Amino acid sequence: MANRPRFHLAFPVHDLAAARKFYGETLGCEEGRSTHDWIDFNLWGHQIVAHLGGDIAEQSDGHVVDDKSVPVPHFGLILDWPDWEALRDRLISYGLDFIIKPYVRFKGQAGEQATMFFRDPSGNALEFKAFRDEDEIFA
User: Fold this and answer.
1) Which of 43, 67, 110, 122 could serve as 139's disulfide partner, Cβ 3.0–4.6 Å?
2) Tens digit of pLDDT per residue, the chain (139 long)?
């Protein structure tokens, strides 16, 4: 892990308790440092920080990808296929309301991928995906 770059993302939330429950319990992210204004989370080795206050980025109507309206902006991760399936099953078991339900897009084409979109309690859009062939991430 130390040899690969990791990203850091700071984003606004309206309620730290709701963020703690969503990112900690629902997504299963380990909590790091925190104060009364922010919480660090370990998102599969990447540091994300939920900051209390501020405006949530304005959401567009989305861009159409594979006949679905993808929310912009959004953030997330590319997981290994089994990890994506495990997260999908976990989120379904929590009764999460998906923006775009889990499915496989671009079947049989370069870049075939499993994807799902959902929002955190503050309205931030997230996408988690997995590629059938990781060599085709940018294909």
Assistant:
1) 110
2) 557 788 999 999 999 999 999 999 999 999 999 999 999 999 999 999 999 987 766 666 678 887 888 888 899 999 999 999 999 999 999 999 999 999 999 999 999 999 999 999 999 999 999 999 999 998 8
List the end-to-end C-alpha distance of the chain, in Å, as a whole number. 25
How many residues does the structure list for the chain?
139
Dihedral Cα 53, 55, 60, 65, nearest 10 deg: -30
Closest by alpha carbon to 20, among 1, 36, 2? Answer: 36
Structure tokens at 35: 């104060």
The whole-model pTM stands at 0.88
Beta bridge partners of 8: 47
